Request: fold
Amino acid sequence: PVGKEEIETTPTAQKAVDAEWRKLVDKGVWNETKAYEWSDLARTARNKNETIHVGRVFELCTEKGSELDQGDPGRKFKGRSVFQGNQVKDQDWNIAMFQDLGSAPAAMAAIKVCDAFGLLKGNIIMQADVEAAYINARLTGPKTYVRLPPNRIPARWSHLRDPVFLLELALYGHPDSGGHWEKFCESVLLELGWNKVA
Reply:
């Protein structure tokens, strides 16, 4: 882990954090074109008997390959901006309840079956990763708003006391992001002709 002070004094660490932030903004993970005053949103939701959620986005930085010598290409900083899923509140300041869309990670047995299949004569197996997988999926359920780090709030919204932005995509850290990603991924694979196994 890289601390805040080190990020601020290390240009390559700051660049990594900025690149991650820019990626999320460019993808439209949250909508920066419209900011809301949280107290107004919460009051309106209470009056309509509507459930909405609010949480915060925070930034992390790690140094991969920190055991390697300085200048080694395997040693680099990685920035991450995540939703703080353990501190989400609703319009009444109660702990938020979620859709319970828990994803179903592959079990060890399934992985071993894949390996065995790949070892059979004439078969091959391949593994792939999806870059920024979660943010390919739309976030559904109660509207969720995010508080951005103070240094990341666009200047045009600085007049708001507690500005929040609508979270549009399944950001890392949101309790339902894994389930939304899994549903999205499954729909894409089925469209491409894949079949579910029993």
The two ends are 41 Å apart (CA to CA). The beta strands are 36-37, 52-64, 76-83, 89-90, 143-147, 163-166. The first helix runs from residue 4 to 9. Residues 118 and 141 are 39 Å apart (CA to CA).
